[in-house]
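Entry for the shared binder. Reason: the reviewer on the internal report wants the predicted structure included alongside the sequence.
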Amino acid sequence: MLKGGKIVSRKSIIIIGAGIAGLSAGCYAVMNGYDTVIFEAHDKPGGLCTSWNRRGYTIDGCIHHLAGSGPSSELYRVWQELGALEGRGMVFHDEFVRVEDPEGRAFTVYTDIDRLEQHMKQLSIADAEVIEEYTRAARRFLNIDLLAFGLLKPWQIGMKSLPRIGDFIKWGKITLEDFAQKFKDPFLRKAFPVIQYGFSGIPMLIHLNFLAGCHNRTLGWPSGGSLQFARSIERRYTALGGRIHYRSRVEKILTEDNKAVGVRLSDGTEHRADTIVSAADGHTTIFGMLEGKYIDDGISKYYQAAPDYLDMSLQVSLGAARDMSREPHALALFLEDPLEVSGKKYERLDIEIFNFDKNLAPPGKTVIKAMFGASYGYWKDLRADRERYEYQKQEIARAVIDRMDKRFPGLKGQVEMVDVATPVTFENYTGNWKGLQAWMPPDRGFGTMMNGFTRSLPGLDNFYMAGQWAEAMIGISTAALSGRNLVRHLCKKYKRLFVTK
């Protein structure tokens, strides 16, 4: 290969996994002159960034707000480089979420901060001072895009962070639950903690960054949903000359003298390359493909401390013969009659109504999804008896439909499709160990955001990881940046100019 007037050897890379991180690493590697091949266990790209079809309805399993959706975000150019936005419309919501209680009160988190402030004061003028503190803080994040920091060098992050370091420290220590206690109005005190996807313990720093991104139109929804988004990147990769082999599960990463040299597939075939990259599940990679030979105490403790409970890991999706275009796209609905799931009582339904994308349902019909946190252990044990497992899924769906029918009268008779995905479902179809997504190591904090967690493994050369497990952070943009930054690192290592075309 001729580059810059010099002959450059064409190095080869094997990438394990065609999720967003693997596809990103593949695209940038080919752009920079590497010979690449991706081995993917599934028959489609995307990994956790996926959708599936049931009886004419498309159920989306991933994206809520895509960072970098608008040109004012630095991340936008990454999606352009990856071809993810080509021919794809973007939806920007006027509401982040609406919270309702059984008494009929509603708190709408408008994405326009001025409108949000006005609405909150209408709900409780007695809380005007607290409301102004909240919206003033959100406005201070309008010029800071935390999710794009992965594009920057440490000194650039420092320069951008310095003017807001006080805000980072202050709002990083306060959770939504903490801030809610400032409200005098009992409904706002109850509603405020659930406005960030219903997660508990979310720092205000994260929420304020999301609110600012929605206001700036840099957090949106790519039309067609998660799988179509992934397929756009797949097309970019193959158009560049990259190769993907589907239904090709990697069982072992081959090593010689503590160097990764290739992979062995489940069919017994072996393939070799100069560099091996795993963009697959972290536990499967480290303790399965590499047999736990390249770890340290930090890695061991991290996976030993894997949570059993994970937010949004149980999803009840409905296809309804009903036009719900006038309903909010996201609804946190406090229940008069609590719902019991996996032995846990829930006083609220967190609902997504996919009324904003006509690609997901037949005309005049709508996909609705309720999301719960769930215990992997509970569902794994239950699945040992397939009949009990399926019965429990049906019971949960029935209970969800009954409660939704109270909010949307007549819905029960309009449901045409029911799909229940458990943590075991996600484990089976995505290969993610225990259906988990990455979590932040408790003892590393901000350093992990800067340096990642397992981008490489101790004692193993010619091997790298990309994606959420490499970074110990979740998010589609995290995955894409992880693949991009890996190739940038390889270019620096081999003294090549990193290019993005």
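Summary line for the report: The chain has 18 helices and 22 strands.
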